[in-house]
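Why does residue order matter? Because the sequence determines the fold. Keep that principle in mind as you read this record.
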Amino acid sequence: MLSESIRTALNKQITDELYASHLYLAMAAYFESQALPGFAHWMRVQSDEERAHALRVIDMVVNRGGDIVIQGIEAPSPRMGKPLAVFENALAHEQEVTQMIHNLYALAEEENDYTTQAELQWFLVEQVEEERVTGDIVQQLKRVQDDPSGLMMLDRELAGRAGEE
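Structure:
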């Protein structure tokens, strides 16, 4: 059985993961409007991953007998900027999510909730990958800067991203 504080924190994480899904979907729509279908595809896959993360947390709560309370999800900002700015924002968001997971883990540790700690291990490892991959794209965009041919090559590369299985 989950403690009330863990259940509340996990429900907040569900909402935060759903916000991340909406954020990446908004970024995908922006890239579509900028005729960058590879960037859009990458962001759509990322949006799907974030939704899957929310579902994983829902399962964590339900499997432990907790109630799910999904709050309203804030609308992402419609202002995006150049591709570099969009990916810098994505990286900053992933860094925030990492801190959220760390805070959840610390709470579970404080309450001696070993099951939640074990479940959160997957998220801790996942966040390392999320930050690394997004950070790599930021670095590539910094190298490309405003070079149209470099941007188009990166767009083609990002179009090849496969979803999680």
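Residues 114-144 form the longest helix (31 residues).
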